[in-house]
Amino acid sequence: MPDAVPEISLLAAVLATGLSAGLFHAFFYAIMPALRRTGDHAFVTVMQHINRVILNAWFAACFAGAPLFSLVAVISHLGAPWRPVLPWAVAGLVLNVAMVAVTIAANVPRNERLDRAGDPDTIADLAAVRAEFERPWVRWNTVRTALNIAAFGCLAWALLLHGRLTGG
């Protein structure tokens, strides 16, 4: 394996994970608390718009890149000289995979149900649609945020250890 792959893959994993963690954390501390203060119509409208516009290449690169780059980092650190780095890289990978699993199993289905509820101007019971969505979505966003922040910390530590081993 080329000499730069372990370092570059670990750096890419840290960056993708950090960007994902930052996005999910922004929902945790700013976006959802702000939306909590809005009426049902505004809440449903804004969340439907967010759920549509977030599906773009930038989000995909970070969301999918975090576990993929973590996997490459783990594979590239399997040799004996990387023994101190490997457990941290593996932990980052496992936490990133768990974040993806939570997102796919818990947040995405709620996003899809909210979208299927239709145009907020035609929804008969906006309060019920919001209630079905908001609390569970926020709870699972908190879980994926914690997983992603922990993954970021593990991968950042792995990168630091990698640097110490290479004298960088």
TrEMBL record:
Alphabetical UniProt keywords: Membrane, Transmembrane, Transmembrane helix
InterPro entries: Anthrone_oxy
TM region(s), chain numbering: 12-32, 53-79, 85-106, 145-165
Keyword Nucleus: no
Transmembrane recorded as keyword: yes
Identification of the protein by name: Membrane protein
Source organism of the structure: Sphaerisporangium rufum
Organism lineage: Bacteria, Bacillati, Actinomycetota, Actinomycetes, Streptosporangiales
